[in-house]
Amino acid sequence: MYLYPVRVFNDPFRRGNNKLVLCDVYKYNLKPAETNNRFSCAKVMELVANHHPWFGIEQEYTLQDFDGYPFGWPKNGYPGPQGPYYCGVGANRVYGRDIVEAHYRACLYAGVKISGCNAEVMPAQWEFQVGPCEGIEMGDHLWISRYILHRVAEDFGLVVTLDPKPMTGDWNGAGAHTNFSTIEMRQDDGLQHIEKAIEKMSLHHEEHIKAYDPNKGKDNERRLTGLHETSSIHDFSAGVANRGASIRIPRQVAEDGKGLPCLGVQIIDPWVDIIPPLPLSLSNSLSDLLLFFFFFLNKAQTPFCISFVKIFAMAQNRTYLSETNKGLLAYYMSLPQEKDTIMCEYIWVDIDGDGLRSKCRTLNYIPQTASDCPSWDFGAITDFSTRAITDLHLEPAMLFNDPFRRGNNKLLLCDVYDNTGKPVAANRRNSCAEVMKLVKDEDPWFGIEQEYALLDSDGYPFGWPKNGFPKPQGPYHCGVGCNKALGRDVVEAHYRACLYAGVKICGCNAEAMPAQWEFQIGPCEGIEAADQLWIARYILNRVSEDFGIVITLDPKPISGDWNGAGAHTNFSTAAMREDGGLKIIEEAVEKLRKKHKEHIMVYDPSEGKDNARRLTGLHETSNIDDFSAGVENRYASIRIPRRVARNRKGYFEDRRPASNCDPYSVLEALCKTVLLE
């Protein structure tokens, strides 16, 4: 067999001037080998070059241990059902992010046109996107990105599988959804060209199915069942925003009447292990190391001689250990990144009101504000909507620096809207913003004290004895020492990461219950306080994910004689901060007294049920059924600090919001009651 070079990439493993070379394979008689589908694809692309076909492929895959079981899954059972993992964040939702981050950075360095990545529906399942690419370039870039993925996973001691259904049962399979458009589809009236293309594909469904996996459809048959966001392998279907169809027309394309780059049609049938050109031709040391990462950046590089690489599989008796591989991740993250090529993490609030989801996108410029970033969409498999309406839109709201990828990379907080342009039920930012416009002249300031607890993967507080309890509360609040402060490394890393991101974090301390901590956000004006808190929560979950620790915002994570967790909200207006402002504060307290029940309903995601476990009148809380207020009274609903009472101006503290509250709802309720009633 002979290897003929077809495309050159930079080598992210050896670096320097070293290269990766993708090759065609030919037999001794100089005819293409049976597996060389690139040859026939290239000929087709020459014939259709004047149509300028563009492609984008969404490559799904699963990370496995060497025993063939998904990485991070319990060895004698299964993780919780699907739902929280898609675009998830946190050590109990995301398995193997280090590999994903290293792969992304390695692809950018290599020159691969990688355009995004996200966690998928099944735990330990991920996706990266390549494109838009024109013609044969698409297959070339996907193949080399697969090679890089396997090489990265090899370094981390994990196995990558492209099996379309690695786990039987109620688990999503893995596809290689292929987005396709021509110049005609991308122009005005392009939708009619898309519809004609769909009609043509409907006539060749069986032929495509045979070409969409190496076993002529037998592999894909396990995935394309009509369940788990797939069509039935036996039936051809198409629809707008329908992820259960063979061909999906994105809603934006249907509305615009034409296909934007790589948004013409999405071919959902191809199996994850397709040969890309074929479908195209048819269409403690751990803590120290982690803290080092958050305070410094490893710039180590190792020179190698130039060489070309032959790919082959090796069995190794290794397992993935985060304790030994954070240095490896730092090595990949130190790969030089083009100045104007950045990774932008789109972040949005989940349907449950106390969680977050995110996915990454490549931008070829450096955004300065959120408005510089493009809108995006995502599949509504997070219970935001019914199966029939599966595309939701992400609208940029606030931009931050990325403390994990650093450089020019960004974190982007987003609003979520449905296909009609209306905010989804979980998008409480929209109504909060409207209220803030009405009260802008009052100059409302907020400061929020976010309490949380650190948990081991078994759900028990970090550092607690597994067969019992620590000593009673007392020495832990603002404590110091390894027998009093449990998990400080996470807290320190989070604080530094927030400062780097541009979050207005203003303090932190250990709380009353061991393994319970608090950070404070503010003072911020208007809706900014809630934006800053949501991003601070995201950063907290990402940091703890790196440390292998779970964050809980449960208002009462441990029953018994232990403090719960709140989000005490400090509030003032310009009038309250001026001389004689205490009178305005007292008037506000009386307004809040009359709306006590209404506020309790919006101070946790479960309309007061979560908070009922915390607001018992014990452990520095008021009783949920009674409204109270007082100077320096931490058992009151509303606390007026002694300094405020003495100066007769300042702010008050609403101690009722639960730790898992939606801050947009809290801020909106306070402003409506105090300023608009």
Shape: elongated
Continuous helix count = 19
N-to-C span: 81 Å
Q: Superfamily at the CATH H level of the largest domain?
A: Glutamine synthetase/guanido kinase, catalytic domain
The CATH architecture classification of the largest domain is 2-Layer Sandwich
Mind telling me the C-alpha Rg?
27 Å
Main beta sheet? 13 strands, mixed
**Mean pLDDT across all residues, rounded?**
90
Q: Which topology of the largest domain does CATH recognise? A: Creatine Kinase, Chain A, domain 2
- Record field, number of beta strands: 23
What is the count of structural domains?
4
Given as residue ranges, the uncertain stretches (5+ residues, pLDDT < 50) are: 281-287, 296-324, 384-389
In what range is the share of β-strand residues? 15-25%
| Percent range of helical residues | 25-40%
Assign the CATH class of the largest domain: Alpha Beta
Structural class: alpha+beta
What does this structure look like?
- It is found in: Cytoplasm.
- The chain has 677 residues and is of the alpha+beta class.
- It has 19 helices and 23 strands.
- The strands form three sheets. Strands 3, 4, 5, 6, 7, 8, 9, 10, 11, 12, 13, 14 and 15 form a 13-stranded mixed β-sheet that branches. Strands 16, 17, 18, 19, 20, 21, 22 and 23 form an eight-stranded mixed β-sheet that branches. A two-stranded antiparallel ribbon has the order 1-2.
- 51% of the residues are buried.
- Mean pLDDT is 90; it is low at 281-287, 296-324 and 384-389.
